[in-house]
């Protein structure tokens, strides 16, 4: 009995030893996933960042959380709780400009930039793509497996290509480690993009590598050939080529026909610019991004790179709007008198223009003291040459308030944006049109003939909004108030209240009124008919084009009207011929 038991034990020991030998001499064929299921995956060089909150992709824009960016790329990064902004400093870094002189000017001394953020619960996320040159990194988004790869730019890279079938990528430097990637479909050439790898470490028989789509692991040397490439990583050459084409496109100042610009009222981050319908014939979009924050010349920044990417893909140039604080004339006055503040202001806007790849700057200073008229002209004369040196188109917004020396401004700026609307403004003592076409023509002639603004530099302002006026009578007294409506809202208001509509020849608009609850409501409608008449003035006076407030208020059919008038019609006589039989009938 004991002998039999001894034999059984011996057999078990031999079997166990045989299994161990088998395992030692045979590779592990288990295939395991390289990444966690769901969510996004971040790879920095050869490190898989496992924190589930390190990365966020929102509407195609890549964002890193504050802690990851600070740890890996910018130890000096700061979070300003009061302004809810991330502060990026130029300490130990350089923002590269188009010329050496500008590079020195922008980086002369410490410059702090406000970077808008996205906050998700308690995590602060920062857009990273537009900072890639600043941080000296390359970013690749591999959409098919939700991987973002970030590499430091280098003078040369060690790469590898598969040359033998049977290669596998393992999680460790031994065949007993499970497989992360098989290369069963190796075609024998090793030239396919999918077989390109970057080498990070070399061992006796193994390389630590990263595949083109971000999987980090180990591969036996016998299956690959290593080489050195000069400063090129996967997709970089293609990206540089696309950037070159974008630069050529953005730097061109030639427009087909007359210029069509629209201001975009952006005071918070738009959730998805790609959801905006196509704007046929639009040349330039001007988002309200930058604002003078104090008399020292610090800027408030609302820009985000995803917007610029969307605009450029659509073929629109981006002339970011740069304003003062419309409510603080005293602060603007102090700023305009302070040369150091103007220098600080200029350095910041140049840095933002470079980082966000802007095409132009639209300067919109309003409601400042009339006594500061010459100081404002001097400010434009100081800032414009440096903006132009950066390849930016410079435009200045003006209206009929005497604080603007229009002729002097036009001698420096590329374009003058004539805000020819608000004939009757929000608190006007009488109700009336936002901009009668007859009124627009009168003031336009004055600006050209008496104020001396060159017609080839002048853009006519168009209103895409309407005011609904309420005349309310209480106890025998009448009060007047108004509210701005979009084009669609205004038309729907007329229809919903069954208002009587007539064509008003002087204003070039449909006029309607109705009574409701002791009030009389009046409206002068902006629509395709009024915009058709107003935009004809561009040809009648041979202006540069139009600028309109704002994209938020416009109805889709306006783009067809402007495309015809600004891009297809060659002159005023042609417009007259096409419109000689127009009948103005309101369509309910």
TrEMBL record:
It comes from the Bacteria. The keyword Nuclease does not apply. Keywords: Glycosidase, Hydrolase. Residues 257-569 form the GH18 domain. Pfam families: Cu_amine_oxidN1, Glyco_hydro_18. PROSITE patterns: GH18_1, GH18_2. One of its GO terms (molecular function) is hydrolase activity, hydrolyzing O-glycosyl compounds. InterPro entries: Chitinase_II/V-like_cat, Chitinase_insertion_sf, Cu_amine_oxidase-like_N, GH, Glyco_hydro18_cat, Glyco_hydro_18_chit_AS, Mao_N_sf. It is an enzyme of class 3 (hydrolase). Its EC number is 3.2.-.-. GO terms for biological process: carbohydrate metabolic process. Belongs to the glycosyl hydrolase 18 family. This is Sporulation-specific glycosylase YdhD. The gene is ydhD3.
């Amino acid at each position: 009995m004991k002998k039999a038991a001894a034999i059984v034990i011996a057999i078990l020991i031999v079997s166990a030893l045989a299994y161990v030998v088998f395992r030692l001499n045979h590779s592990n064929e288990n295939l395991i996933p390289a990444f966690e299921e769901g969510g996004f995956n971040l790879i920095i060089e050869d490190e898989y960042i496992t924190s589930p909150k390190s990365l966020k992709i929102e509407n195609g824009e890549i964002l890193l959380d504050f802690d990851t960016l600070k740890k890996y790329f910018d130890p000096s990064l700061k979070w300003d709780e009061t302004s809810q902004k991330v502060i990026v400093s130029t300490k130990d870094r350089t923002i590269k400009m188009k010329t050496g002189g500008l590079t020195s000017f922008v980086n002369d001394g410490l410059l702090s930039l406000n970077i808008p953020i996205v906050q998700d619960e308690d995590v602060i996320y920062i857009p990273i793509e537009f900072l890639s040159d600043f941080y000296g990194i390359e970013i690749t988004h591999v959409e098919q497996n939700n991987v973002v790869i970030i590499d430091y730019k280098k003078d040369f890279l060690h790469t590898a290509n598969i040359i033998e079938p049977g290669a596998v990528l393992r999680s460790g430097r031994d065949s007993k480690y499970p497989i992360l990637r098989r290369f069963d479909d190796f075609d024998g050439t090793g030239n396919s993009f999918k077989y390109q790898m970057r080498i990070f470490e070399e061992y006796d028989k193994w390389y630590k590598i990263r595949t083109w789509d971000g999987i980090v692991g180990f591969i036996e040397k016998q299956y690959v050939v290593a080489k050195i490439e000069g400063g090129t990583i996967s997709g970089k050459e293609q990206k540089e080529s696309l950037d070159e084409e974008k630069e050529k496109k953005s730097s061109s100042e030639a427009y087909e026909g007359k210029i069509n610009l629209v201001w975009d009222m952006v005071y918070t981050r738009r959730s998805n610019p790609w959801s905006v319908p196509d704007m046929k014939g639009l040349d330039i979009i001007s988002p309200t991004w930058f604002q003078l924050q104090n008399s020292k010349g610090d800027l408030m920044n609302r820009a985000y790179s995803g917007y610029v990417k969307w605009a450029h893909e659509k073929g629109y140039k981006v002339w970011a709007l740069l304003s003062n604080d419309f409510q603080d004339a005293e602060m603007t006055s102090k700023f305009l008198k302070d040369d150091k503040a103007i220098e600080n202001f200029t350095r910041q806007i140049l840095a933002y223009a470079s980082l966000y790849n802007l095409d132009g700057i639209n300067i919109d200073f309003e409601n400042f003291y009339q006594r500061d008229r010459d100081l404002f002209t001097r400010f434009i004369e100081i800032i414009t040459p440096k903006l132009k040196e950066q390849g930016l188109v410079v435009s200045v917004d003006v209206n009929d308030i005497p604080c603007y020396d229009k002729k002097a401004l036009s001698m420096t700026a590329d374009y003058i944006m004539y805000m020819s609307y608000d004939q009757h403004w929000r608190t006007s003592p009488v109700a009336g049109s936002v901009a009668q076409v007859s009124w627009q023509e009168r003031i336009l002639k004055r600006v050209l003939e008496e104020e001396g603004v060159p017609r080839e530099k002048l853009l006519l302002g168009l209103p895409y909004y309407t005011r609904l006026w309420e005349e309310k009578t209480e106890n025998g007294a009448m009060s007047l108030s108004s509210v701005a409506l979009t084009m669609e809202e205004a038309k729907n208001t007329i229809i919903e209240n069954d208002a009587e509509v007539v064509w008003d020849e002087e204003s070039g608009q449909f006029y309607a009124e109705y009574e409701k609850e002791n009030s009389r409501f009046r409206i002068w409608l902006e629509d395709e008919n009024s915009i058709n008449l107003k935009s004809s003035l561009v040809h009648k006076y041979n202006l540069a084009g139009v600028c309109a407030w704002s994209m938020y208020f416009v109805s889709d059919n306006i783009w067809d009207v402007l495309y015809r008038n600004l891009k297809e019609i060659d002159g005023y006589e042609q417009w007259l011929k096409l419109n000689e039989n127009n009948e103005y009938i309101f369509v309910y």
